[in-house]
Amino acid sequence: MNKVIDKKSFWFFLAPISLTFIIVVIIPFIIGMYYSLTDWSAIPGATTRFIGFENYREIFADAQFRTSFVKTLIYAFYAVMLINIVGFSLALLVTRKLKTSNLLRTAFFMPNLIGGLILGYIWQFVFLEILPYVSELLNTGILGARWLSDPDMALWSMAIVSTWQMGGYIMIIYIAALNSIPKELIEAASLDGAGALQKIRHITFPMVAPAFTVSLFLTLSTSFKMFDVNIALTGGGPARLTELLALGIYNKAFTQANFGEGQAQAAIFFGVIAITTLTQVYFSKRKEVEM
Fold first, then answer.
1. Domain annotation for the chain: domains and CATH numbers
2. Which of 46, 92, 260, 290 could form a disulfide with 40 if both were Cys (CB 3.0 to 4.6 A apart)?
């Protein structure tokens, strides 16, 4: 009798969430997959024809889509690398029992509470006005680089902004993992004469391996879906050479009113993100076992 009640309670609490997920995610996804096979323009009164895989053929023949795809891969690599390095370094810093550790945690996490569009416009001012001024003042050429006008530098600029925004969030994940390491292991390593780097390499890294898996998954999926910072910081310019996939899908659908092809791009985008993140989780889990 209790098992029957437990099952009913389980489905009673699960039903609203499941229904919401189906309505908000599953049904729109299926409808979107159908529209990716049509010439839907979203113009009132316009007829929508079923054209099969024509949109997908157009996508793979589109040079701009290939450019956006490559740029997204490059940006994702930069962002994932920087965010995790900075996040882990900050976590190591604030777990060293400093008097200001709580204040530092709050300060490092604060940028994550600011919207990406606002961050993009703030950092646009920093890259275009403040850094050139400081570079001229100090007579250093590095700070005066063409941060947003050079396509390669623009990708680094977006990665820097994303790191400033998300580094504190990833720091919290690493802090939780670092605090779960048994103090006895650290003390035993100290008694055996292990240095700081040896402790990090042989104790910290293996013990926080699950946190690496989670953090890599979050940063990788977020980097692939980058939109707000991209549109605020560069707008895809110059000459659409910094247009990432998410912004490219938006432009195809809403700027060019080609919702069918835009939806087809979104379907491919979904597949790329799913395959990439699942592959990353698989290999990260295997690495956890090896460590």
1. 63-290 (1.10.3720.10)
2. 260
